[in-house]
Write a structure and sequence with these properties.
Length: about 290
């Protein structure tokens, strides 16, 4: 990562990544195309002028008979339906976008090695250390961009969090507040923990060494230098994160709100456009933004 403090306009960086409008459309296959994210991704592929050339679905899915255009909410039909076999789905693809399950993503990576695919965008979460290592093994063949959160704004926020922690030092209390919809099961969110990691890294430490226990009960005093987390669960909120650094006399506040779930698909597409032509290797969303 290059320094976020290099004077480049942050908003311009995001717009640049989002608006790097395709001179050459990519040929993209979408894994798990009938899923919540699969549909968002198919829609974004078409909306940004790329070619939707294939898709996969799990064996037995009733959606295996549906035309690919249906998942993108587009007309006319493309005359292709999802495949179970990733190699078949990607036989004319240059780019593979995968928001499925760790097992499905790993199986697809093996199959993709014999296809023309050069770029792989992975949004799937929940890889254990072994699966993560297996995934890394494919970076010899593909330019892989993997992120647990494909919002470009969150990528920028994470870089800013690290920079702020570095510059302000441990004397400023770092607190992270996140709000999500009522159905979310894990807390704090993966993104809140990612921000905590960034703050800890900015202080030259690891989050487990600095993370405050949840404030609750009569012995809940804040420890100096700790990173605190607060969680709200409310209605249909997609995802809000706020990080504050507070001294005795002032507060610095960094915040992000996801307004629509399409933000993740837009980020994945921006990553696909950025990664096109990059050498094989493992990349993060921060590389896409250059932060
Ligand atoms: P979902 O269950 O709606 O969709 C997953 C799809 O994958 C389903 O249609 C399912 O049938 C399909 N699938 C399962 N096994 C398959 C296989 N072997 N071959 C082909 N298709 C298969 O889930 P979702 O909400 O779309 O989330 C998918 C993943 O993306 C999760 O890991 C989630 O945490 C992650 N996610 C990441 C981000 C991000 O920004 N990185 C954002 C949202 C969701």
């Amino acid at each position: 990562m290059t320094g976020a403090g290099s004077g480049t306009n942050a908003y311009a960086l995001i717009r640049q990544a989002m608006d790097k409008m395709i001179d050459t459309p990519l040929s993209i296959a979408v894994a798990g195309i009938a899923g919540r994210m699969g549909r968002q991704l198919a829609t974004a592929v078409v909306a940004r002028g790329h070619r939707l050339v294939g898709g996969t679905e799990r064996s037995g899915s009733p959606e295996l008979v549906s035309d690919l255009a249906r998942f993108a909410g587009a007309e006319p039909p493309l005359g292709r339906t999802p495949d179970v076999d990733a190699a078949k789905a990607a036989h004319t693809a240059s780019t593979w976008i995968d928001f499925t399950t760790p097992a499905a993503t790993l199986a697809a990576m093996d199959a993709l090695r014999s296809t023309p695919v050069q770029t792989v965008i992975i949004g799937t979460t929940g890889f254990d250390a072994e699966a993560e290592a297996a995934l890394q093994g494919h970076a010899d063949r593909f330019a892989i961009v993997k992120a647990g959160n494909f919002s470009l704004g969150v990528a920028l926020l994470t870089a800013l969090a690290r920079l702020a922690a570095e510059r302000l030092g441990a004397g400023w209390d770092a607190e992270i507040l996140e709000t999500h919809h009522r159905f979310k099961v894990d807390a704090p969110s993966g993104t809140a923990l990612m921000l905590g990691d960034a703050v800890a890294a900015g202080r030259g430490a690891a989050l487990p060494d600095l993370q405050a226990a949840p404030y609750c009960g009569p012995e809940a005093k804040r420890e100096a230098g700790a990173i605190g987390f607060s969680v709200r669960r409310s209605g249909g909120v997609i995802g809000e994160h706020e990080l504050t650094f507070t001294s005795e006399t002032e507060t610095v506040r960094l915040a992000h709100s996801a307004i629509d779930r399409s933000v993740f698909a837009d980020g994945a597409l921006a990553a696909a456009e950025w990664a096109n032509g990059q050498p094989p290797g493992h990349y993060g969303i921060g590389d896409v933004l250059g932060v």
